[in-house]
Write a structure and sequence with these properties.
binds iron/sulfur cluster, single chain, two-stranded antiparallel ribbon, 22% strand, alpha+beta, globular, Alpha-Beta Plaits, 89 residues
Length: 89
Amino acid sequence: MDTKWVTPIGDEGLYEINTGKWRTFRPVIDCTKCTSCAICAFFCPVSAVHRQQQDSTKLCFDLNYCKGCGICAKECPRQAITMIREEEA
Ligand code: SF4
Ligand code: SF4
């Protein structure tokens, strides 16, 4: 089963919760400010912040699961993350 977030409750049994569908804002990282400390990843409630496969010093967001809550932007000590409206992305 290729799912990340499942819940054991409900008549359907296990099913995927695709939290990215809730998003109205998305996070964007300013790489000139980011120090790759990964504090944003620590605070993300859905573990949607990952290190890039091509360059592990850079982070990226899994938009299938990022729900646009903005916690990462609030917790970033460098103010390197900006939340922008999906329509503007
Ligand atoms: S918390 Fe800010 S500085 Fe640290 S990795 Fe995330 S975006 Fe970069
Ligand atoms: S906006 Fe929220 S869900 Fe998306 S990466 Fe940041 S902390 Fe995670």
